[in-house]
Design goal:
With about 70 residues, this protein is of the alpha+beta class. About 25% of the residues lie in helices and about 45% in strands. The protein is elongated, with a radius of gyration of 13 Å. The N and C termini lie close together (about 5 Å).
């Protein structure tokens, strides 16, 4: 048994963030279901920003047992 890390990214646009976050959740859930992930060890979200400090995206990192 070993640990693996998978990274997902999503662009966030004004007034569409909730839809995009739902799409990101669906992407992660599809990965977990489709790859037989038995145990998730950690999930972490981190925003990405532009040069003015505005949030333009989100990176989600999932650590899981193989």
């Amino acid at each position: 048994m070993g640990y693996k890390v998978k990274t997902f990214g999503m662009e966030l646009r004004p007034l569409k963030a909730m839809q995009e976050l739902s799409a990101l959740d669906a992407m992660v859930n599809a990965f977990v279901a489709g790859n037989g992930v038995k145990r998730i060890v950690s999930v972490s979200d981190s925003p990405t920003t532009d040069d003015q400090g505005e949030t333009i995206g989100l990176v989600r990192v999932v650590a899981y047992e193989d």
